[in-house]
Amino acid sequence: MCLAIVLFAICIKMILQIDLTIVLLNCLIMVEQVKEFERNGVKLSQSKRKEMEKLKSHIDALNLKYLQNLNDFTKFLLLGEDELAGMPFEFLKDLEKADGKFKVPLTSYHVTPVLEHCKVGSTRKQIAVAYGQKGGKDNVAILENLVQLRHKFAKLLGYTNYADFAIEPRMPKTSRKILEFLEEMSEQLSDVANRELNILKDLKIKEEGNAQFGMEDLLYYIKRAEEFKVDLDVGEIKQYFPVGLVISGMLKIFQDLFALRFDEIKDVDVWHDTVRVFSVWDASSSDLLGYFFLDIFSREGKYAHTCVVTLQNGCLCSNGTRKVPAAVILSQCPKEFDGNSALLRFPEVVRLFHEFSHVVHHVSNRATFSRFSGLRLEGDFAEIPSLLLENWCYESISLKMMSGFHQGHYEIHK
Question: Where does the record place the Peptidase M3A/M3B catalytic domain (predicted)?
Answer without folding.
Answer: 115-404
